[in-house]
Specification:
By secondary structure, the protein is of the alpha/beta class. It has eleven helices and twelve strands. The strands form two sheets. Strands 1, 2, 3, 4, 5, 8, 9, 10, 11 and 12 form a ten-stranded parallel β-sheet that branches. Helix 3 packs across helix 5, helix 6 packs parallel to helix 7 and helix 10 packs across helix 11 (319-337). The radius of gyration is 19 Å and the shape is globular. It comes from Hymenobacter fodinae.
Length: 338
């Protein structure tokens, strides 16, 4: 099982001095370098177009990280493909693959944050149709140097070459999903590895959806080895569970209470948080031993997972605490799981 980290390049921290954008990016690159040094498998950068995040140009951050790392795989988490041009997305990540000497991947999705749609002139009424068409084109470009294609939302391609080509024979493309059954079936029918974002509730409740994915993939002729499942979870590791809970909760509550207010909901309570950190809850917050045990429990409940990525940005923790958590993930959590 691969262990990694996803980041949204948070522009602020819950305590300590305010950071400039340049300082926040510099610290993020330090964290990616540390993740590589302690033997983590993958680091992902999201895509948002909001004031609290600095990840609108994902491939640029990953290319900077590629120059400072040696082994760790570098991926998006996720690329909002619905609001992007698949030709340009492929070119950016193929270039990243060359810069990183074959370590680039991408996770593509429809986007749970919708600010990219009006920003780039797309209609939310076309939410799924945009993604379906653009995913088809992206996979065609990945598999063919010259593409003949036509669709509704982009000018046709009539055999133009798409360059550069990546170092890897086939650039890995994962499908990032939330809780929509059709998305799980689509990933299976295409034989794409699946990255499931579970940020709340009980993780084992996603088993029927993952079974849909595996059954669709089997019916489409793909082997079990091709149908990989990854888990993207909110999480944080400290020396003790009590320390992890106390450090993670304030920023977590602030972030999710703010999102709830935007959508007309109620603020997060400590009781809700503690329920999510329990044995079946989605949050991977605790000591290295407790978190490793919980990951293995989740893997068994979901029928086997091949990748777990921790999202720690939601708690707006200071850089040094994040660095310490990365150390624990690499030196204690990952070895326990492996």
């Amino acid at each position: 099982m691969q262990i990694g980290i996803d980041s949204f390049a948070a522009a602020r921290q819950s305590n300590g001095p305010a950071l400039s954008g340049a300082e926040a990016i510099s610290q993020l690159l330090d964290r990616i370098e540390r993740a590589d040094q302690v033997g983590l498998d993958v680091f992902g950068i999201g895509e948002h177009h909001r004031v609290e995040y600095l990840d609108s140009a994902t491939a640029v951050i990953l290319a900077a990280a590629a120059a400072r790392t040696k082994q760790i795989r570098l991926t998006s988490a996720v690329t909002v493909l619905s609001a992007a041009d698949p030709v340009r997305v492929f070119q950016e990540f193929a270039t990243l693959d060359l810069v990183s000497q074959g370590r680039a991947e991408m996770v593509v999705g429809r986007g749970s944050s919708i600010e990219a749609f009006p920003l780039f002139g797309f209609d939310l009424d076309d939410y799924d149709a945009l993604f379906t068409e653009k995913l088809e084109l992206l996979l065609a470009i990945r598999d063919q140097e010259r593409v003949h294609w036509h669709g509704k939302f982009r000018p046709a391609l009539t055999g133009q070459g798409i360059y550069p080509r990546p170092m890897q024979a086939q650039l890995p493309v994962w499908l990032g999903v939330g809780g929509t059954p059709q998305s799980f079936v689509r990933a299976g029918m295409l034989g794409l590895p699946l990255m499931v974002a579970i940020i709340g509730g009980d993780t084992h409740r996603f088993r029927p959806l993952i079974d849909l994915y595996r059954n669709a993939g089997k019916q489409a002729g793909y082997s079990p080895e091709q149908l990989q499942v990854g888990l993207h979870s909110l999480g944080y590791v400290a020396e003790t569970t009590e320390q992890a809970l106390e450090e993670f909760y304030p920023g977590y509550a602030q972030t999710f209470s703010s999102r709830a207010r935007e959508r007309g909901g109620a603020p997060v309570t400590r009781g809700q948080f503690m329920a999510q950190t329990g044995p079946l809850g989605a949050l991977l917050v605790g000591s290295p031993e407790e978190v490793a045990t919980k990951i293995l429990r989740h893997s068994e409940a979901l029928g086997g997972i091949s990748r777990v990525t921790f999202q720690m940005d939601v708690a707006t923790l200071p850089h040094q605490r994040l660095m310490a958590a990365i150390d624990l993930l690499g030196t204690r959590v990952a070895p326990l799981i492996r």
